[in-house]
Amino acid sequence: MEEISKRQHQHHFVLVHGLCHGAWCWYKVATVLESAGHRVTALDLPACGASAVRAEEVRSFQEYSRPLLRVVAAAPPREKVVLVGHSFGGHNLALAMEAHLEKVAVAIFVSAPMPVAGWPMSAVLEQHLQGDSASHSFLDCTFGIVGRGSENPAETFLVGPEWMSRRMYQLSPPEDLTLARLLVRPAQMFLRDEVMTGEKVLMEGRYGVVSRVFVVAEEDKTWPAKEQRRMAASYGPRMEVRAIRGADRTISSLAEHALE
């Protein structure tokens, strides 16, 4: 009986990184979760982390999300996974929730866009990019256009070292910033992709019914906390936003609070 009870409290966490990052950015979170007895799958999406694919070779957001969709689809019949997405990874979570709602126990959006059913997934991201602080928020980040011909070029984005130091890793140990500077790669936002812009991609009866948690990073300098809360509130009265003290600094808070 004790062994059965132990298994019931173990979960399969699937961790999805944000833009320009890879599975490597979860190394501390994965360690904490595995030490607590959970199963962890940290993904490298195409052209990210250790992926051999280049950014311009990824043709669509559907293709970019394929590793996540495959992992969720492969979950055993009686197993439900816990999806965790940071930043841009919230879009990938939404697509997986829509496609495999029966296999997702809960989706955890960590300072990540949480699309609204019936609206384009790109809407929240576009609002952020057009916000009052957007004009001065990118510092030494770079935008580029590469490959694929003049009719369908790949528009890429790469976080800069100064931007990472001042806005993303300002609370992190210097070793983590060094690691990130070595491993970040150019990535696409897929703002013109038909899956990102379609109004019928996410349905209330599928994506809309999956349980979710939104973790507000109060000290996030890439996306102000008030904007995070406003976005979460736009989902409607069924969305509960809970503050987790120290969420910006304490990696174990994710495992301790997300499944309460």
From TrEMBL:
SUPFAM superfamilies: alpha/beta-Hydrolases. Residues 13-240 form the AB hydrolase-1 domain. It holds the Pfam family Abhydrolase_6. One of its GO terms (molecular function) is methyl indole-3-acetate esterase activity. One of its GO terms (biological process) is jasmonic acid metabolic process. Gene3D superfamilies: alpha/beta hydrolase. This is AB hydrolase-1 domain-containing protein.
